[in-house]
Amino acid sequence: MVRKFLNRVISRKDLSIDAINAFVEGNASADEIQLVERLIRDDASLERDLSTQQALRSVLGRIEKIEAPRSYAVTPEMVAAAEGHDSLLSRVAELFAPQRKLALAPAAIGVIAAVGVALLTIGDATGIVDQSSSSQGESFSTAEISESADGGASSPGVAGSPGSSDSSADMFTTEKASSSTAATAAPSAAAAPEFDSADDSVVAESAEAPVAGLVGPDTDSQEPEPPSLMMEAPTNALIPDVDEAASVAGSLDQDSSLQQAQRDSISPVDSSEAELAYAEDTAFEPASSNDGISLPLWQLQAALAALAIAAIGAWAGLRRARGG
Amino acid sequence: MSVASTRSSFKMTSFDEQRLIQLTRDGDYDAFNRLVVEYQDAVFGVVLRMVRNRATAEDITQDTFISAFRKISSYRGGIFRAWLFRIAKNSSLDHLRKIARRGETSIDEDIVYFSETVKDDSQDPEADALNAELARLIEHCMGGLSDDHRFAMVMIDVEGYQYDEAADAIGVSIGTVKSRLNRARARMRDCVQQDRELLPVSMRLYDKEN
Fold first, then answer.
1. Are B119 and A64 an interchain contact pair (Cβ–Cβ within 8 Å)?
2. Domain ranges (residues) in chain B
3. How far apart are CA A215 and CA A165, in angstroms?
4. I need a labelling partner for B107 at 20 to 30 A (CA). Which of A194, A280, B13, B120 fits?
5. First-to-last CA distance in chain A?
6. Considering only residues 147 to 186 of chain B, which have any Cβ-Cβ distance to chain A shorter than 8 Å?
7. What is the pLDDT of residues A150-191, one digit of tens each?
8. A169 and A260 co-located in one domain
9. ipTM of this predicted complex?
């Protein structure tokens, strides 16, 4: 019904255009003249418009034709030069020429990839999509463990408290610089009896240093172990067990309980417990246990973005080479 | 190679044209250059009215014929001139798009690119001057049309080609050409009416009456 109506309207409009054009050109048939006269009856201004158009057309028709200023004859050299200018891209475009729609494929791929990047970004922002437990997840866990072990030993937050001296701050800086090695050396050293028994051992120092640092200027004499010494820790101790961490925390707890009275503000015991609890909660849980979908997000985003740029670039290049 | 640089002195028939096209397919430059001589004025005229820059029009015209020679195998019958116009039109539109993208204006309004004037039988110098002004006004108004409308108007009203040939050249249906021409004429009418004193009396009659 609607289509019929539209077709009638369109065909009427086409008829009007045909009739008006023919009238202006002076080629109108009897039917067309009749139609134009009817249109003029409906709209008086049309007569003036048509008359102006007739006059205009007659002026346009009287414009002299332009002559070419020179010969545009083609020589083999010109053709060879044109072929030489053809880039690899235009040759690729030629391949697409018979199937023009195929040339849209790179554009479609580009758009899909761009949409993928956008969805991942939105998913990341809204928390639907999260980083997977790939190599990056593991390194993140290791860092957390190191920090928690280090926190149990050195308690950086406590060392940075107002009660700490400059020397303890320096010590913290030094230890932080070698945080991962120091932290990983601690549990392994704790396992070795000769180090465990000695007060000045690596374990004692790494466990006591921040506590001593809290005490004040008395600890100035204690210097952090040189990083080279700490680096001797075996690599298999990089990720400590919970028990080892707990034993370190336990020894720390004993030592720190002796100096509890001297401290008025933050308790490193609480802090280390909190750190340990945090380590247990986060570091030893697989990162993939999140509620959302876990993907190697940034790699995927980068790959999709590169694909989108390459595909859209290829499409634009093809269009340009094809001259369309 | 003997390249005729002068105007073709014979009227080419359809038979001649098809024979020359066949020879061109075999790589005959002489045969193709006879086609060039036949159509170079028409191609140059349309291109110049499209791009409105003489140097650019010369380059595009030359490129059109080189492309036509190289792609002659893709010509599959029909009006050969329309096929040439289509190549020329695509090159012209590419050029216009490029300068539009760069935000340039290749049209130097101070230069009259159309040496021709509106033909007038009278030998009156004043009338000649008026005609020259009128030609400029028309060119100015045509410059204000969209590329599609301008091409339709140039092909039919200025160059005098048939609708089917224009439709072939543009690559649209005859109905679309008619519609574009109708709109182009209406816009031209509105534009030239703004400078009434240059218009021929026939175009000013209604204004006087009103």
1. yes
2. 9-106, 122-210
3. 8
4. B120
5. 39
6. 153, 157-160, 175, 178-179, 181-182, 185-186
7. 444 444 434 334 444 444 444 443 344 444 444 444 444 444
8. yes
9. 0.78
